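Translate structure to sequence.
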C-alpha cells in the first residue's frame, strides 16, 4: 500500500494542479525542473491524454525531458520554438516581488533561458518557499561556473561579500556537474538587499555562466498548502 504523501508533497501538488490549468490548446510550454514541477508535468500529461490537448514542451533539463517522455508530452526545442507561451517552474525562495532564488536542482542556466523566452512565467512551490528577503536563513545562491575559473570566481565572490562552495555530489565523489557540463557553486551572502544589482555583479565575473537569482522574470506564483493555493501576481513588464 502507498504511504500517504506528507503535507509538503500535497502542497506542491496543489500548486502544480492549478498552474497547469493556464495551459491552452496549441501552447508551447516551458517545463521547469525539480520535484514540484514533476507534479505539473504529470498533470499536463493527464490533460494531453484526456482532453487531446495539443501542446509541445520545452524541457529545461534532462529530468524534465525524461518526465515529459514518461508522461507522453511531445517535446520541442528553442531552435524550433524560440518563443514559449507559458512556462511553469519551481523555486527555492520567493520574495514579495516574485524575485527568486533557483538552482538547487542545478538546472538554473537552462531554466533562466526558458523563463526569459516565455510570455507567461508561473512559479509553483509549497508555501514554505516564501521569504521576506532573498538569502534569508543564509540560503545560498547557486551559480554555474566554468571549471577553469573556479578559483578566481571564488576570490571575486569573496570581494562581493559572498562565500562560495563547490557543490559536491551525493552517491559519487566530486562536484555536481550540470546538464551543460559545468560545476555548480553555492554562494552565501546572507540577506540580499538588491538582488538585481547582485545578479549583475555576479554576471560580470569572468567564468560565471549564470546565477540562480531570477529577477523580474515571474508573472505569478501559486503557493500550495495542504488545503489549496494562494496566488501571488506581479505587474512584470513583458518583453514580448
Ligand atoms: C532546479 C530548480 C528547482 O525548480 C528548485 O530547486 C525547486 O525544486 P523543488 O520543486 O524540488 O523544491 O531551480 O534547478
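Result:
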Amino acid at each position: 500500500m502507498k504511504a500517504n504523501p506528507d503535507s509538503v508533497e500535497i502542497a506542491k501538488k496543489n500548486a502544480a494542479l492549478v498552474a497547469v490549468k493556464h495551459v491552452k490548446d496549441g501552447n508551447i510550454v516551458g517545463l521547469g525542473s525539480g520535484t514540484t514541477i514533476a507534479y505539473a508535468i504529470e498533470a499536463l500529461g493527464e490533460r494531453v491524454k484526456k482532453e487531446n490537448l495539443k501542446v509541445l514542451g520545452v524541457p529545461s533539463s534532462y529530468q524534465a525531458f525524461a518526465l515529459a517522455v514518461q508522461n507522453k508530452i511531445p517535446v520541442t526545442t528553442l531552435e524550433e520554438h524560440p518563443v514559449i507561451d507559458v512556462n511553469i517552474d519551481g523555486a527555492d525562495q520567493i520574495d514579495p516581488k516574485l524575485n527568486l532564488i533557483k538552482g538547487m536542482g542545478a538546472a538554473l542556466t537552462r531554466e533562466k533561458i526558458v523563463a526569459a523566452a516565455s510570455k507567461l512565467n508561473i512559479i509553483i512551490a509549497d508555501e514554505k518557499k516564501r521569504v521576506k528577503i532573498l538569502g534569508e536563513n543564509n540560503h545560498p545562491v547557486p551559480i554555474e561556473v566554468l571549471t577553469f575559473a573556479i578559483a578566481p570566481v571564488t576570490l571575486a565572490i569573496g570581494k562581493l561579500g559572498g562565500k562560495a562552495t563547490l557543490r559536491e555530489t551525493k552517491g559519487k565523489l566530486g562536484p555536481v556537474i550540470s546538464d551543460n557540463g559545468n560545476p555548480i557553486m553555492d554562494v552565501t551572502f546572507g540577506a540580499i538587499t538588491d538582488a538585481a544589482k547582485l545578479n549583475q555583479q555576479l554576471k560580470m565575473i569572468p567564468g560565471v555562466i549564470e546565477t540562480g537569482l531570477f529577477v523580474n522574470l515571474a508573472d505569478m506564483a501559486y503557493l500550495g498548502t495542504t488545503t489549496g493555493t494562494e496566488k501571488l501576481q506581479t505587474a512584470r513588464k513583458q518583453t514580448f
